[in-house]
Specification:
This protein has a two-stranded antiparallel sheet with strand order 1-2. Helix 5 runs antiparallel to helix 6. It is built from 13 helices and two strands. The chain has 381 residues and is mostly helical.
């Protein structure tokens, strides 16, 4: 019934607008004189009138409902409804966050949940990271219902940790939210022209890159967030792959970057060749040690040094490949995440098929497993 009533109201409103438009046109036509087209054009320019079939009608001084009035009133009505909806959503969001805050407060209070009461900001770090990655997965999959759940978990962990600091009298949850909002306003002087960030505004920004450049200028000149190096802005706690990507982006902003992607690609192969050379030296050291070492200590030291050199070169190769991905416009974290998922799908298929066909999963049956892997690929897994 509510839908029927809403439909009736919408139809009535539309009919009202159409009727008003018809009245406006009829009155405009009735008031039009026999002026020629040229005169009408001149009057239209001078007085803001409207034309019908080449004749001019100056309705500025007449009464009644006119076309401009109807369209303006309709637009204002739409704006008002949109503002009401935004206000309603803001109130719902505030109430929902208050409910979350109160729930966390109860869980952390005496008589609350033992597990929640035992946690600290330090113990919650891993949970926060895991929830963020789960949210990223849900978003990447395009699953809105799953994304809603996982983003909620991110909010829970962030709010829980902030509340722990509130309990320790470090800062309140409200302090964290207000500081975030103030930072957003300060760093968007092109949207909030009277914000603190206006003294570092770089003009009429039109692109995302210009916004980011202005953002950096505000951080440096207004917030005074500058260290000995621009790389200090990259958190040390980032996963290594992500940190490599961010370090390279920071350096590139200072002009320290390859200009030709072919050179970047060549660097990848150069680093892979150095890995192969390090492995060859490691293997040679192993053979020499097996033949000549009588004292384990020097041999162990040489072995460890050779192993560390391989590790170093592999790291350089990873870093070069991350840089190549960046130049290709690929986020290495997301790319590797996709590869992990693909491997999971195909290996799970191999496992299931081996169970179904009674094929042992061991080195002796690697050929069978490889054939099943190719089946998985052909099936698009």
């Amino acid at each position: 019934m509510a839908d029927i009533e809403k439909s009736r109201n919408g139809a009535a409103e539309q009919n009202g607008i159409e009727h008003a438009l018809q009245i406006a046109v009829r009155r405009d036509n009735a008031q039009c004189d026999d002026a020629q087209y040229g005169d009408a054009q001149r009057d239209n320019t001078q007085h803001g009138g409207i034309q019908h079939n080449g004749a001019h009608c100056d309705y500025a001084q007449s009464d009644g409902i006119y076309l401009g009035d109807v369209l303006r009133d309709s637009a204002q009505h739409d704006d008002a409804r949109r503002d009401d909806k935004l206000h309603e959503n803001a109130e719902k969001t505030a109430l929902a966050y208050k409910r979350l805050y109160e729930t966390i407060r109860i869980l952390r209070a005496p008589g609350g949940c033992p597990w929640d009461r035992e946690q600290t900001p330090l113990s919650m770090r891993r949970d926060l990271i895991e929830e963020v990655f789960e949210a990223v997965d849900a978003i990447s999959e395009g699953d809105a219902a799953h994304a809603k759940e996982e983003l909620g978990d991110v909010l829970l962990n962030a709010t829980m940790i902030a509340y722990m600091h509130e309990q320790q009298h470090d800062f309140s949850v409200a302090d964290a939210l207000n500081e975030l909002t103030e930072k957003l306003i300060r760093r968007h002087p092109h949207v909030f022209p009277e914000s603190e960030g206006k003294i570092a505004a770089t003009g009429n920004v039109q692109t995302g890159e210009e916004v980011l450049a202005q953002w950096d200028a505000i951080k440096a000149n207004v917030e005074k967030r500058t260290g000995d190096s621009v790389l200090d802005d990259v958190p040390k706690g980032f996963p290594p792959l992500l940190r490599a990507y961010k370090l390279q982006k920071k350096a590139a902003k200072k002009g320290f970057d390859w200009q030709d992607i072919r050179t970047v690609r060549e660097k990848v192969f150069e680093e892979l060749a150095e890995v192969a050379d390090a492995v060859q030296r490691y293997e040679a050291q192993q053979c020499t040690a097996a033949r000549t070492c009588t004292d384990i200590s020097p041999c162990e030291a040489e072995h460890n040094a050779a192993q560390l050199h391989v590790e170093e070169e592999v790291g350089d190769a990873f870093f070069a490949l991350v840089n190549y991905a960046r130049h290709l416009g690929v986020d290495p974290e997301i790319a590797l995440s996709h590869a992990n998922k693909k491997f999971y799908r195909r290996f799970s298929y191999v496992e299931a098929q081996c169970r179904e066909r009674n094929i042992p999963m061991d080195n002796a049956h690697l050929e069978d497993e490889d054939a099943l892997w190719n089946e998985a690929k052909q099936k698009g897994l």
